[in-house]
Design brief:
This protein has helices at residues 18-29, 53-56, 63-75, 149-152, 174-188, 237-246, and strands at 3-10, 38-40, 78-87, 90-98, 104-108, 131-133, 136-142, 162-166, 191-195, 198-200, 206-208, 212-214, 220-223, 229-236. With 261 residues, the protein is of the alpha/beta class. The strands form three sheets. Strands 5-4-3-2-1-14 form a six-stranded mixed beta sheet. Strands 6-7-8-9-12-13 form a six-stranded mixed beta sheet, covered by helices on one side. It has a two-stranded antiparallel ribbon with strand order 10-11. Helix 4 (149-152) links the parallel strand 7 (136-142) and strand 8. The protein is globular and about 50 Å long.
């Protein structure tokens, strides 16, 4: 059965400095010890979590998309994380999913963080993304989406094996982050990966990291704590399928349909 090697970067970010963030992240990825299949970066990894979209947004033909394509090709891996994108006179907190051959898909953050006024700046997404990659089905979401279990639910119509969240989740709410991330893995009988940032942003908000990779039982496979660096772990599909066969909770769930309107 397919194995999937997952690498994620937990790091501080330069406030409103896309070039500096790309350079720093590129240096960190250059230190990967070996091949990997999936590289995950935090939410808004070029800027930090900001409402100043007009001055910080890029387009889908901008330098960060080009950089992601170069990184994906260099590492022969999907590279993903969210950035601020301007499109059709709207701004999106957009997760970009870039394959080594340059093909790109995206997911626009559905649940906008009203406490920060995100809904006044960004347009919400309307649909989830589930990607097939090297024998795994992966559903990438963004930060505040973690608080909404219906949107994250593993469904028969679009099942996944790995649920991932890219985030700028403040330290003041770290208990919610760690608790909900484990809950999403357990209730969906899937592996879950949450990738958060470190440091302090330009608004004075502190970030504790606590990025983690969790198996379908809710057990930690990787706990980054407050350490900066690139973390790598190989997931085994046979272990996931064995657990699902023994504990078939997904078959007992309620039938429903997600509507992103």
């Amino acid at each position: 059965m397919a194995a999937l090697t997952v690498s994620f970067v937990q790091t501080a970010l330069h406030w409103h400095d896309a070039a500096a963030n790309r350079a720093a992240l590129g240096q960190q990825l250059a230190q990967l010890p070996g091949p990997t299949d999936l590289i995950v970066l935090p939410e808004m990894f070029t800027t930090g979590f900001t409402m100043e979209a007009a001055g910080q947004a890029e387009t889908m033909t901008g330098p960060t998309v080009a950089w992601l394509r170069a990184q994906a090709a260099a590492h022969n891996a999907v590279v993903t994380g969210s950035v601020i994108i301007q499109e059709n006179d709207q701004y999106f907190n957009r997760l970009l999913w870039v394959r080594p051959d340059g093909r790109l898909r995206h997911y626009d953050k559905r649940h906008l963080f009203t406490l920060a006024g995100e809904q006044h700046t960004y347009t919400p997404g309307r649909a989830r993304l589930v990607e097939d990659w090297r024998g795994w089905r992966i559903c990438p979401l963004v930060c505040y989406d973690l608080r909404f279990p219906v949107w994250s639910r593993n469904q028969p119509a679009a099942p996944y094996d790995l649920l991932l969240y890219v985030a700028n989740w403040p330290a003041v709410r770290r208990t919610a982050w760690t608790t909900l991330l484990r809950a999403r893995a357990i209730e969906n009988v899937a592996c879950a990966l949450g990738v958060n940032r470190l440091g302090q942003d330009g608004l004075g908000h502190d970030y504790a990291g606590d990025s983690a990779l969790i198996d379908a039982r809710g057990d930690y496979l990787v706990e980054a704590g407050g350490a900066a660096g690139v973390f790598t772990h190989t997931l085994r599909r046979d272990e996931l399928e064995d657990f699902r066969a023994k504990f078939a909770a997904l078959h007992d769930g309620d039938a429903f349909e997600l509507r992103g309107e």
